[in-house]
Amino acid sequence: MKKIQSVCNYCGLGCNLDFHVENGEIMMVSPTENYPVNKGFCCIKGLNLDKQCTKIKGRRSPLLRNDKNEMVEISWKEGFETFVKRMTTIQKHHGSESVAFISTGQITTEEMALLGHVGRNYMGINGDGNTRLCMSTSVVAHKQSFGFDAPPYTLNDAQLSDTIILIGANPVVAHPIFWERVKDNKNAKVITIDPRRSETARNSDIWVDIKPKGDLILFYTLANVLIENGWIENSYIENYTEGFEEFKSHVSKFTLKDVEKITGISEKRVLELARIIHNGKRVSFWWTMGINQGYEGVRTAQAIINIALMTGNIGREGTGANSLTGQCNAMGSRIFSNTSGLYGGGEYDNVERRKAVAEALKIEESLLPSKPTLPYNVIIDKINKGEIKGLWVISTNPRHSWVNNQEFKKAVDKLEFFVVQDIYEDTDSAKICDLFLPSVPAIKKTGVMINTERRMSAILPILEKEDGELTDYDILLGIGKELGMGRLLDNWKTPEDAFELMKKCSKGMPCDITGATYELLSGSKGIQWPFKEGQLLKEDERRLYEDNKYYTTSKKANFIFGDPIKNPIEISIDFPYTLNSGRGTVGQWHTQTRTREMDVVNSITSKEAYVNINPELAKDLNIEQNEKIRLSSCNGVKSEFIAKITDSVKKEHLYAPIHYIETNSLTPSVFDPYSKEPSYKMVSVNIEKINVEGAGGYEKNQDR
Ligand SMILES: Nc1nc2c(c(=O)[nH]1)N[C@H]1C(S)=C(S)[C@@H](COP(=O)(O)OP(=O)(O)OC[C@H]3O[C@@H](n4cnc5c(=O)[nH]c(N)nc54)[C@H](O)[C@@H]3O)O[C@H]1N2
Ligand SMILES: Nc1nc2c(c(=O)[nH]1)N[C@H]1C(S)=C(S)[C@@H](COP(=O)(O)OP(=O)(O)OC[C@H]3O[C@@H](n4cnc5c(=O)[nH]c(N)nc54)[C@H](O)[C@@H]3O)O[C@H]1N2
Ligand code: SF4
Ligand SMILES: [Mo]
């Protein structure tokens, strides 16, 4: 039996797994023992990674919608020809930017890079990632505060901390292997800040039951309290940061006296939290979607960064203002996709970077985009306005996951040509496309993924592709050739070629990976960036900013802050409850296209959309366990859910897992002004009983 080590392509931790293969079949999957991330553990999704396109077979050739509105099989040649003919015709008539793509954090770095070359460089189109729904808040926060999108930590910091503060993060469900490491650290006090008594909050030493979106005020008040008590590291602030005096004066407005009204946390508890931060010798802050997906997410993330900076809790063991990534290759998308910045980082108007990247790719500089992509929400708006007429969706399922998701359906109805490239032809998005391009899943691919702590890991083909099967890389090459890119593809023949190009683009940048090779990565412990040519790999875990130098021009970190803005979502008499959303169970992944192949998960998870409701509220409204109820949202849409009664939500709150299409039918189009990340986590809704006479005015969700 052959044993092949590869990376799990679900969550951003990037556990490594050993695939035991015999006669072209995966006999067993086991977690790699000495891999620094997961050290011989993994979650149920990783263990079941053999089940990709097995029960639900993948296709070997594309599907095209015919005049009778049926999807019919066509050859790959016809697929590429149709793609190119339709997209370029639209561009000819309506300008190059009348076509766009939306991609993902779940394909290999090489595929992202090639997509950026074909789509952004050659076709001249806008293309954003679903990472906009997830990590863009952290990206902007890092760039402004640190001078580069460079998260400080290594996962081991969770084990070296004496105080672990989890903010808007539920790792018990979303990052289980990270949670293992938190639990392993018996010396740490674990504090979870979450409006919900999540699985993580229940298992923490302290649950800070903040009001939804109260975080910015909480962190500004904490900063003020820390300053007033002199609980700050003056020498760190003086030597390694900029803007502290302005920040100090800004936060002086946020006093203990006012804190409870907005955050729901009493003066005493806020003071206690400040004291815990002060008493900690190695305090680490970890945030995820409870912060990123907010209408003022960027400033909130920076408020966390500011506290780490002013207390000197960064660049040392067990510390850091640390944002965990969601998807397996979100970090690849952030730095090597040519969407919001040049390959290897840098803005599109940075003369030096343009020159360096053009030279690395051996292309004319004029071929590089001159500006960042239009963000996801603007792409959808422009489709609805009729300005964008062709859309290409790769490895994401926006009909389900996009905010206010019926707007996506409306947008698709306006498109002249809609292409979906996925491993399954029956996703909610693929079902409504004109052309479906089937890719094989990651277990048949070669490439590199970059995890949450900047660790590159090798994806190796566990199974051979069968006749007619193509990877996303093959598909992109096919499209590029058909577009007539010719010699522009000479340096992109294989994934390894693309990796070599990305190495060159990264040279001299904070994410320099010139020292990495496929050979070094394969069967290894992974390699964190930066890793420069000639550098020796001395330790398995490396953090950034140990030298207290940041990537800004002055080499100092910035205190960035702003006045809180009014929450665009209001709780009113019409919509008196707050609907929160997020991950449901360890076994369910996003829109469930992949995890539905796991019988063990199907047997224990709800088939129907459900919503958590507090026992007291259920009693007041006379709602019983498992009763079907209807939620009406401030965005004008109503959807039905099964009521699951639990005290994990407060009386005035509801929580709906994102694994059901109903949830995002209710989320309104509200975005952070800087990152354009949707403010998914807070919706105002009302509850209607379904079996009550006269509860009319409801239109059945068109999709169900
Ligand atoms: N099993 C599983 N694991 C996954 C995924 C999956 O689909 N399934 N998806 C992956 C991806 S892409 C991502 S991005 C990560 C997400 O990982 P997480 O962000 O940890 O998961 P979420 O459930 O989205 O949200 C975390 C918590 O934010 C809380 N929250 C909501 N509003 C607020 C608020 O105003 N303030 C605070 N402080 N907290 C708030 C919610 O109650 C929730 O408990 O998970 C990754 N891991
Ligand atoms: N209300 C609410 N909405 C949310 C969130 C929330 O917390 N609340 N979270 C948001 C976040 S953080 C995220 S990341 C998004 C996720 O949203 P999506 O990206 O839409 O979710 P997935 O189900 O992961 O979609 C990935 C798609 O890629 C396909 N796929 C898998 N592997 C491959 C491959 O190798 N090649 C190709 N071509 N296709 C492949 C899968 O079959 C699937 O259809 O959801 C967002 N939506
Ligand atoms: S914790 Fe994340 S990376 Fe590890 S096995 Fe589970 S889904 Fe995969
Ligand atoms: Mo995500």
UniProtKB/TrEMBL annotation:
A GO term for molecular function: metal ion binding
UniProt key word Iron-sulfur: yes
Residues of the 4Fe-4S Mo/W bis-MGD-type domain: 1-57
InterPro entries cross-referenced by the UniProt entry: Asp_de-COase-like_dom_sf, MoPterin_dinucl-bd_dom, Mopterin_OxRdtase, Mopterin_OxRdtase_4Fe-4S_dom, Prok_molybdopt-oxidoreductase
Residue intervals passing through the bilayer: none
CDD domains tied to this protein: MopB_CT_Fdh-Nap-like, MopB_Nitrate-R-NapA-like
Statement: the UniProt record of this protein carries the keyword Iron-sulfur: yes
Keywords assigned by UniProt, alphabetized: 4Fe-4S, Iron, Iron-sulfur, Metal-binding
GO CC field: membrane
PROSITE patterns, alphabetized: 4FE4S_MOW_BIS_MGD
Domain of life: Bacteria
Protein name in UniProt: Nitrate reductase
Organism: Clostridium estertheticum subsp. estertheticum
